[in-house]
């Protein structure tokens, strides 16, 4: 007799573990299947995000920022520091300590919410009146469990390119780039997206000479053009050498270095030699060996599982969330979908406004936005008005030596409804939350302009940008 659960979640990344916790809070019997093992061979919850994604990369970004501040910026405060050194081994150990603390935290939450962790690989084997059957294999004996409802939350993995075998030593994806044992003298990065810019920034701050190759003709094409232009200027000033519109050709790696042949945007043949190469050209959904066909499901031509507006697949009581379905591959989007599905299973009627999901790039300065860009709105023929305010006119930004960047707000020309907020600044990831709240409640730019903001604070720039929409910023 197989074990039976109200809800079985396949995958314990941000979408999966949050879905499991919410379903358990709602009184369901819940199991979560996860097979992730760390390099030491220990089974861990948290998926890519906690183990080799969001959390460790932010730890390294923080460490490298501290190093750069001590090396170059403390003198501005009148603090003299000599002979600053980086202990890469200790930095990596700190990162691993944070990851361990976070993954242990999820184990605690599973115990607290009485969630069964099924350790191994989950694969559909069929369905009957009792529910969907899932085989769990890989740790000890293989067992089959029955689920009344299933949530597929298997996430994604790094896209690899033909002719570039990733060994995570010389040629690395996001996993290897988080664990270089020394600072490369020369580092090449293929892909100027979120991961490429963040990890390129980490090693650039620590002393690497970083060259970024991007196939697309525009830098940060998904961002508002004003943001992308400012970011390109600041990254160039920092020393990131970014080339757009390139076509990568043959890549040759030895056990000590790598040579990248490419054609630049003008059609000229170029050769780039580096000690290490990071390949960050997007991610592909994890649907390998899931046995979808056993329950009558398949992936679409892009490898994603098709769903409706409520994350339901074509098979009744089977849902999919996060990176295996349409939409941005963002941990917080997966979390929201996990909560949504758990509440739908409970009979509730939740809703996600995908236009109000924020994007963040954790460079220095950070880049964050929510809603639509000016170019998107203009292409739709929408009448808009914009307001922009720089951090160089903000006392708090000057005080903490972080005066780069600005806030840009876009509102409907007639109704003043906020349509997009775009920020490049220190702490943009925190500042954007105010914009998300405002847009969820269909606020007008004037609403933010009339709310009292603490002084001195970076958040005052949000207010000033909102006032600037109506050309009445107070400090410009």
UniProtKB/TrEMBL annotation:
Residues 5-338 form the FAD/NAD(P)-binding domain. Disulfide bonds join 49-54. GO terms for molecular function: dihydrolipoyl dehydrogenase (NADH) activity; flavin adenine dinucleotide binding. Binds 1 FAD per subunit. It comes from the Bacteria. It catalyses: N(6)-[(R)-dihydrolipoyl]-L-lysyl-[protein] + NAD(+) = N(6)-[(R)-lipoyl]-L-lysyl-[protein] + NADH + H(+). The active site is at residue 455. One of its GO terms (cellular component) is cytoplasm. It holds the Pfam family Pyr_redox_2. InterPro entries: Class-I_Pyr_Nuc-Dis_Oxidored, FAD/NAD-bd_sf, FAD/NAD-binding_dom, FAD/NAD-linked_Rdtase_dimer_sf, Lipoamide_DH, Pyr_nuc-diS_OxRdtase, Pyr_nucl-diS_OxRdtase_dimer, Pyr_OxRdtase_I_AS. Residues 357-466 form the Pyridine nucleotide-disulphide oxidoreductase dimerisation domain. Keywords: Cytoplasm, Disulfide bond, FAD, Flavoprotein, NAD, Nucleotide-binding, Oxidoreductase, Redox-active center. Its main location: cytoplasm. It is found in: Cytoplasm. Belongs to the class-I pyridine nucleotide-disulfide oxidoreductase family. This is Dihydrolipoyl dehydrogenase. The lineage of its organism: Bacteria, Pseudomonadati, Pseudomonadota, Betaproteobacteria, Burkholderiales.
